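All the exercises in this workshop are built on plain-text protein records. A record pairs a protein's sequence with a compact description of its fold. Backbone structure tokens are a discrete shorthand for how the chain folds in space. Once this layout is familiar, the rest of the handout is easier to follow. As an example, a complete record with its sequence and its structure tokens follows.
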Amino acid sequence: MATSDKQRGVLTGMVAALAIVIVVLALAILLHPVALLPVGSGLDSRLGWGAMWLILPALCLLLAIGRLASHRFMTPEDIDGSGLTQGSETARIAQAVIQNTLEQAVLAALVYGAFCASVSRGWLAAIPAAAVLFTLGRILFAAGYRRGAPGRALGFALTFYSTIALAVLAFVGLVLRLLGP
């Protein structure tokens, strides 16, 4: 089966994001700069560290919601909201960005917590790295949305792959803890 131009564009974005996520998270984990680590090593310090970095996904969601609210206020055809109107293309795109950002933020919150609880302290530098990748991904996703799937692929994949990488590492950390002494 031959791939379409759109599929090749999406694949390019996915591969680029995967390479970026691997390099950034690997550097964060291997170098684990002290400034990117929690002060304490107890579970409360670790979970607090992860929760603190959730401000970046939260800000992404806040900005996406604010962008749609501002658009609705300034656009007579959209001011009544999606429950009462069909909505303009701009409103529908903004709502799609909000929906995807909400899904990604909830997943990130769950994974960041599990990651903080299941890996060694030095690996926690991956949390701020993932939060920055999440933010960059959301910016690129929203900026590229009108260009279709290839336009938003890099942004989506940066957000998703950074969270998935932490989820896999958290799961491995959990298994090792269960099998350990």
